[in-house]
Amino acid sequence: MKIKYTLLFVLLFATSLLSQAQQESDDLKARIKRIENGLMPSLQIKGKPIQTFNINERLKQLGIPGISVAFVNNGKMEWSRAYGMADVATNRPMTTETLLLAGSISKPIAALRAHQMVESGKLKLDENVNNYLKSWKLPDNEFTENEKVTLRRILNHTAGLTVWGFPGYLNEDELPSTIDILDGKGNTDPVRVYKKPGESWMYSGGGYTIMQLMVADVEGIPFAKTLQQHVLNPLGMTESTFENPLPKKYHNIAATGYNGRGQEVKGKWPVYREMAAAGLWTTPSQLIQYAIEVQKIDNTKKDGILKYSTVKEMLTPGMNDHGLGPQTSKSRFGHGGADNGFRANMIAWRDQPYALVVMVNSDNGQIMQELQLAVAKEYNLSGIQADVRETIEISEAELQKYVGRYQVGDIGVVEAKIADGLLTFEAPFVNPTMHMFAESQTIFFDRQTGNRVSFEIKDNKVTGFTVQGIKARKLNK
């Protein structure tokens, strides 16, 4: 009889666990559904209702082919989803296994290997990089007489180096070596010291390309190979790669990149020989493993892929809230990425057990911010907020003085009109048409991007405007 009661208890307990798991699964599905239908504009107008969007409908509205996302809760990946298309021409859907270019998120991942080499004594953070570079040397000049370019300064962008970013290459191009790139024989300027190292902050992908060569020179093996062996595989990012050009074995799972107008980039995707700066191919589900590991070491104070002391130093905010690899603050760390045809963002919280990675195969990353807002609302995440602006009403009669044709620098002519009570800008190079709200009599902003336009008014007549540092003059005054 006792055995029967024991079996009954076990069955009831097992049934209870299954029911609880099913309830948790149903709760998670409901959460994800609320997020999928709760995308919010990153630019909001104070006092006006906030419109929400369905993620699939929003992809179509914005002309973005596809999006992939992964979310971590309490140290484990709670869910991942993909929407839209990896390749429009072949009707291939985006999946959670689709590889995308991570852009500058490559930098903190690449930095892990440099930190490992510091821990093993192969490199030093504050030593002149020329002491480690064997196949090439960074030319000294008047700026390096007393201060040197060091690994620490490369990692936190205070080395005083040129070349902030890279446009990438076509597969058909004659691809330069790392040394060619550093000497300006690729499609960018030479990487050189242009101001005193350590003096101030300036983002430099060129610096990370020096680090790429330094790691390869000291290791004696190709950069992509050592990153695969010592960083990607140990993190569980076994299907990710720094190899550029992308090996053929990955082509059938790689997303095609698209520009902001929804047109396929030439060659389907760019090639980044500047691998440490911009060349990582990965998925949100794999990339978020970096966030999980660093977050775990930071929270538990126990060693992992790096020692806790290394991670503590790596995540200490420096100039412009940059650590030794990732962007960082007391509450969060992460990085953004932008390659030709691709956008990505990674955020991990230090005071909350969450992490989020979002990637798209488009130059238009607007939907990423909108999705992040929906996730932040659902999980009550700190630090992700909409840009809320106040506006003033200007009558159509008053708007008439802004109407006309403007020569925008050397770019072309834009025509200002009035539509539905708003000032609009139309031109062949403006896509889509800009619809603008007024913050004041002289400052308007595009309701989609938030870009501000500052008008010049003399004697109650508009003579021109400035947008993103570019001046325009009115042609028909």
Defining traits:
8-stranded antiparallel barrel; globular; 7-stranded antiparallel sheet; 12 helices; alpha+beta; 30% helix; 23% strand; 477 residues; single chain
Give the total of beta strands: 19
Helix share, percent:
25-40%
- How many helical elements? 12
How are the strands of the biggest sheet laid out side by side?
A: 12-13-14-15-16-17-18-19
- The geometry reads as globular
The averaged pLDDT comes out at 94
Helical/strand content category: alpha+beta
C-alpha-based Rg, rounded = 25 Å
Distance between the termini: 100 Å
> Low-confidence parts, pLDDT < 50 over ≥5 residues?
none
Strand content: 15-25%
State the major sheet.
8 strands, antiparallel, barrel
Kindly describe this structure:
By secondary structure, the protein is of the alpha+beta class. The chain is built from 12 helices and 19 strands. Strands 12-13-14-15-16-17-18-19 form an 8-stranded antiparallel beta barrel. Strands 4-3-2-10-9-8-7 form a 7-stranded antiparallel sheet, sandwiched between helices. A two-stranded parallel sheet has the order 1-11. The radius of gyration is 25 Å and the shape is globular.
Describe the structure concisely for a colleague:
By secondary structure, the chain is an alpha+beta fold.
Secondary-structure map with pairings?
Blueprint: H1 2-36, E1 43-45, H2 55-62, E2 66-73, E3 76-87, E4 92-93, E5 100-101, H3 106-119, H4 151-155, H5 178-182, H6 205-219, H7 223-235, H8 275-278, E6 281-282, H9 284-300, H10 308-314, E7 327-328, E8 332-339, E9 342-349, E10 354-360, H11 366-379, E11 387-389, H12 396-399, E12 404-408, E13 412-419, E14 422-427, E15 430-438, E16 443-446, E17 452-458, E18 461-467, E19 470-474
Parallel strand pairs: 1-11
Antiparallel strand pairs: 2-3, 2-10, 3-4, 5-6, 7-8, 8-9, 9-10, 12-13, 12-19, 13-14, 14-15, 15-16, 16-17, 17-18, 18-19
